[in-house]
Structure prediction request, 618 residues.
Amino acid sequence: MSAMLLNKEKWPEFVGKLTGKNLWAPKLEGEAMRFAPVAAGDEISLDYGNTRVPPKGAAFPQTETMYLFQLGNIEMEEPKLEEELILLGVRPCDARAMTIIEKLFRWDFDDPYYLKRRELVTLVGLACNEPGLNCFCSSVGGAPDSTEGLDLLMYDLGDSYLLEAVTAKGEALLAETKELLTDSDAGAVKAKEQLVADAGSKIKRTVDHSGIPEGLPGLWEDPLWKRVSASCIGCGTCTYLCPTCHCFDIQDEVEGFEARRCRTWDSCMFEEYTMHTSGHNPRPTRRERTRNRINHKYNYYVDKFDVIACVGCGRCINLCPVNIDIVEILRQVKEAL
Amino acid sequence: MTAENPYIPYFATIEDSWHETGGDRCIKTFKVVFDDPAVRDSWSHKPGQCAMIGVLGEGESMISISCSPTEGKFLRFSVMKMGKVTQALHKLETGDKITVRGPYGNSFPVDDWQGKKILTIGGGIGQAPLRPIVEYVKANRDKYAGLTMIYGARSSGDLCFKGEFDEMSKCDDLSCHLTIDIEEEGWGYNVGFVPQMLLDLNPSPENTIAVTCGPPIMIRFVLENLKKLGFSDEQIYTTLENRMKCGIGKCGRCNAGGMYVCKDGPVFSYAVLKDIPEAFA
Prediction:
């Protein structure tokens, strides 16, 4: 795969080449960074830790129409998914998360919506030079320069970006912009390696997950679940903003005779999520719901798909309104083993 | 449930429908036939499987298929009137359409059970997923060593499939034992709870498979009593239910421990079930 250099002076032109397509990149909206459509290079802010909402919505929108119909009619119309999308500036953890949830969306039954959207998305990553305070990707199989799920990875070398193609889609992007690029050289590679090593050493939070997937079943009735969920207010932020959380609800929306069946993100931290129509709830309190969330990520998913369903992005820690900290929960799990 | 999109349902028309029970939470059975003849022909399900049935504009619910494939090219669903979707279903009459996708989940391993005696122990609406076993065994009498059915409900009015039991009592290798919780005038059968009736009948575990479904509290005591009678974990089966949305292992909510009830279940042997932490939660 090729590697090329892009001088930052050429950045506006580079972005210009891509804006002919549907281009989304991190943009400051209010006080938060968010992936949003961009038309020019100066709208993009690549000086960011990470976006508040992960880019999983590119393949798994927060709400999406599954099919449209009219009441009283038996015709069902599926939305046409054909528009390509480039996501520019995706953090390696978030791209990796998309490969992790893809395993579920391919499990036995292929999920046509996720897989089609995923196929239409090109992911251009940006390696992390400055990991966030609560980042712990390197503890869960990731790295500041992980290429899993990406088509192209950019490294910020100061005056220039080093662009490394990962897939054929990434190669094609390099080919389309080749007049703006120059060949990479030994100096650039060395600078990149140094940045990655430095970034790695700046990650302060760690999880030692050895023994956790196998050990969690034995801790089912452990008092730790009551303790770690005591302050939870059940807001669902940890799951909505998690790049690997994939649970959804299906609802019908009707306006007059026009109707659609749609799916929306859901959260295992909500009481209604598991409540039976009878009122019986197999996970009646936040203790059981928190226990399920941790087990799902660190036990069930490992069992089924051989990978932890957590990429260490730190969003659930950064944005929990009552400071529940998954790294701390895992430390307590480890201690209780 | 097309090849390309498993979320797209088929249409089926209600050929017949009737009330099994009365009251606020009444149970209505729908006999439906797929509109598309190709679907009618290609559809195949096994006892214990479920289907997502729905009303466009209201939503979908996972309901166990309460007929055996041996009964014909139709499906039966016995639905208790509970929430938004089931209330909408209850308003439908013969000739109306519902949506169906599936069949989902594993099934009772009825073929592995050939040569054995089958004992079903049901309570209330829990008889719906057991009925396909009863019908399957009735249709393949020579392949099974016998069938004993224990079925109970709060009152005689709460028993489903009542018209079907008389015929069973006329056969030598089939026996049907009904029970209700509270004495009623004119009730000629047993009075008492299902788990106790199981103990009183004292069936031998020899060459027998026991299958139970009903309210969680009933299942718990039935399992306890089956153990008392000497049944091994591998001889006991049950079927679980949980809230579901997708039916195909994606939406997340129906898991009991690491098992998705929609895909890994709904049928579990007690040998598997006893190690699933949330199975009886």
Summary: Chain A has eleven helices and twelve strands. The first helix of chain A runs from residue 11 to 18.
